[in-house]
Amino acid sequence: MSKSEAPRSWNWPAWLWSALVIALLCQQIAFWRQSRLDSDVMALLPGEKHDALLTLANQRIAESATQRVVVLIGSHDFEHAKAASGAFLKAIPSALLKPAAPDEASNAALDLYRPRRGSLLTAAQRGRLAHADIDALGNAALARLYGPGLAGGLTDWRTDPLALWPEWWQARLGQGFQSRDGWISVSRDGVDWIVLRFATNAATFHLDGQSGVQDALASAGSRARAAAADVKILNAGVPLHAEAAAVRASWEINTIGFGSLIAVIGLVWLAFRSLRPVVLVSLSLLVGTAAGVACTALVFGKVHVLTLVFGASLVGVAEDFGIHYFASRQGHPESPPHALLRHLMPGMLLALITSVLAYLALGFAPLPGLRQMAVFSAGGLIAAFLTVTCWFPALDRTAPRNGAFALAIAGSLSRWPRLRLAGWKGVALWAVVLGLIAGGIFRLRVHDDLRSLQNSPQQLLKQEMEVGRLLGLPSPAQFYLVSGSDAETVLRREEQLTQRLDAVVADRGISGYRALSDWVPSESRQRTDAQLSGRVESAVLKRVSTTLGEPLAATVAPTIPLSIDAWLQSPASAPLRGLWLGTADGQTGSLVMVQGLGAHSDLRRMQALTSGLSGVRWIDRSQDISSLLGRYREMMSLMLVAGYLLVAIALAWRFRGQAWRALLPTLLSGALSLALLGWLGEPLQLFTVLAQFLLLGMGVDYGIFLVEHHDDPASWLAVTLGAASTVLSFGLLALSATPALHTFGLSMLFGLGFAWLLSPCFRPAMRQNDR
Known about the structure:
By secondary structure, this protein is an alpha+beta fold. The chain has 26 helices and 15 strands. β5 and β6 form a beta hairpin.
């Protein structure tokens, strides 16, 4: 068939694939309209499949903070803080951030607890009443009877002669918080801070590169400073981190994805000097990326932002099929497109299988994030392969011309040096290489930290920590999980725990805690406290009656214990409802959140508080995940060794005594990439090991090609172009602000670069009939 001969008409695979691509297009339109994207770092991590209560606890903690934003506006002059806060609220667009209404639960709480006032005591009140000095308490009660305030208006004197209830409320609400002129405020270090709470109305993030919430807060902050120049403004909340991650991801996707695409298009143009290969290769990449998104959404329901960032590197791999087709078409213009494809199919299919298996190896680690990346990449590669095999022969018209660039690459293989293992020069070279590898690997440091999966701006993290310190916010990563057979058991165990936590608060080890049993004591404690307070109050009223010379009697009605079900049904429970987990797998559970944990907190002491307490566990989510990442790193390292052994066996079966020539370049490349990471001070982590998996799956193809095809210029051109684009795409991941992807990108950049560079050095000597 001549160059100008038209290709055969479309066959049924081409038409079938066309129908599937049209369906894929419709799915993509619906997906991006719904914006089913996720930026929660915890979604990348494994859940506790065998611990229903812990899984539920993590979900509750995440849900409680997903759409909340807290703003603190502070000044040494409270009037300035008020003026700035008013200007700030007026400038906030309600369509984006909705100011939280005044606590609607306050009145409901008063109505709920007032009938049970006598059964609500703090630990300090309980100790004081147990050793009560009736004369002293009577004098204090008499003074309050004739003094101002009357228990702050919460109760009348006869209902609460000892003023126990205001003290109980103050202990529940925390020290320092108060309502001033209609503003919730807290004073710290001589600064009066007004606390503003908002809920995000829009989706937490969009991949449009715009920081809507941050921009709205910045604009409102400018208005606030215009009203009072001396104010300080702090912003905190999960939506701010999510939006920052989305903005960064948008930049990375554009840089990595479009950078890779431009590089691939440039290489294809230089090699083939024709618009048709550029368009068709770009088409295969577009279909592959869309299919990757569709497969991930179908399997997982959502697509994580980091999956898209990682998937942008797919551009550098998926184009290999198209480049192989056109390189062979260029080298063998006399072959008809469909016949050429049949000739290439075994090799291309083997390349697809090895690459897909390399990506799917990521899915062996039980991390949802890696599984998403594996499904995305595998689905994208398969779609790109089908686009080439189904459409290219039907759309291809003429073989591309041989240009100077393509001829130079194809001819470079004949001038590539062959390394020899013998002789003093060879021994000296190997000594240098092995010394470089040993020194770099010795310098590698292990770093299995959860923080390698996040990339929040430092300024935002500093503000988050300062807000947490000022407000005493609990840590979402460390908490106590209390479980029992029923609600009463859980509340009793909570009370045992809080007694120990009170000692830590007294020692200033923590600033406080949030426990449901502070608001809903166990029924046994409510009855005991009701008896204690009733007995002491009766004695005090008798003492005051004697002094006044008139009979006084308590007006407290018999107390009906407050149950957890009644509390949950009341609006008063809204702020703390998330602490109650309910029942899962036959166990009832609750959370106790700890406030004031910092970088120097004694977490071992917090763990030790659970000693001897049945059903109470200390959960350190950050440490648990970091340890889990370490275990997976060790497990995947062993699997990598097993993978090399299996590949070696397969190569030995195919190439016999020449098998080492196909495997040694990849083995050396992996060792050299690890060594360079060590010399550069980059950490060894799970993603570093996973990069070695992909290197094994992709890099060994270069060695296989050179053993299988020797010095075929057309095939060498295809491999060089594919390797160059793959190195560029994965290398651009090194620009990612996410530490894990940054290290992954560096590993792939070094590893694939060395694999491409070293593979020709170990190719067999030319056979006589090849000369």
